């Protein structure tokens, strides 16, 4: 059987591609792991943050809101994907100018971000040390995002439209002929007219196997920890806190504090594990920014966030390999832009213009096309 679309990877990029394309033809998704979304998708900080990223990413984020807020019925969910959670930005003395610049830019784009007094920030998150920062801002319109439900829901909806999701299918060989693409994965052979590269940290490797353009994508390790606060102050209602520039961020989650030092360590594609030094550094930053005495790190993990040189997603047709399409380089944005990129890849592969709700936000396909990187 020849499918219309073969998607390599079943993380968030692959799930979004499957969701969008399953309305336009037959699909098979190949995932090398025994669990879809095993790598970065399952290791996210789970936040919808409209101000995050460069302008094109913000456009995709904002264009995704209505979908995420509605939690469409075809996802098969029993609860909402989004729950409100403000974000507080704090700045030490040497970062106050950067905070003011961030707020000015966000407000110019109509985002509900405003400067607040440091005392107000401390009243909202009482564990903050007043002497750690000299300026603060608050962003409303941010939300906790149920990553697992979104990911599973998109794959569930694709399956309901007869998409095949095949696990433990590691790609071994890719070839192109007049009829399309032939992919051998774990001893099985698959045929498709279009090949979608949604392989995350392995996307460059997949492109090389297919003879596609040599687009450089850099996997960067990000470390996360979960801290049990014990008898120390804690509230599930606190906002997320970010030291401007992502040098530290933390938020309450599942009765604990989830925190990261915002590390971006170049790392080869792999089942990445947290580095002890990054874990210790995160604990140190958290203790310096708050009154917490971290007695126990309940859990620690790491994921690979994959970026192109300009830190924009890579979505669209390869300039060299016919019917080879990129859905990669989503960086730390893939979860919150998933609905928009599902619509974008579906429009591209069905010969349609950029969807109106994306164009209305100022997105141009040229902003994310692979050809810009050559």
Describe it for me?
- The strands form 3 sheets. Strands 5, 6, 7, 13, 14, 15, 16, 17 and 18 form a 9-stranded mixed beta sheet that branches.
- This protein has 10 helices and 20 strands.
- The protein is an alpha+beta fold.
- The chain has helices at residues 12-21, 55-70, 96-108, 118-124, 147-160, 203-210, 276-289, 338-349, 356-359, 365-368, and strands spanning 2-8, 27-30, 47-48, 82-84, 87-91, 113-116, 135-139, 143-145, 164-166, 171-177, 180-185, 188-197, 218-227, 240-243, 248-253, 256-260, 265-266, 297-307, 314-317, 324-328.
- The mean pLDDT is 95.
- A hairpin with a 6-residue loop joins strand 19 and strand 20 (324-328).
Produce the secondary structure layout:
Elements: E1 2-8, H1 12-21, E2 27-30, E3 47-48, H2 55-70, E4 82-84, E5 87-91, H3 96-108, E6 113-116, H4 118-124, E7 135-139, E8 143-145, H5 147-160, E9 164-166, E10 171-177, E11 180-185, E12 188-197, H6 203-210, E13 218-227, E14 240-243, E15 248-253, E16 256-260, E17 265-266, H7 276-289, E18 297-307, E19 314-317, E20 324-328, H8 338-349, H9 356-359, H10 365-368
Parallel strand pairs: 1-2, 1-12, 2-9, 5-14, 12-20
Antiparallel strand pairs: 3-8, 4-8, 5-7, 6-7, 10-11, 11-12, 13-16, 13-17, 13-18, 14-15, 15-16, 19-20
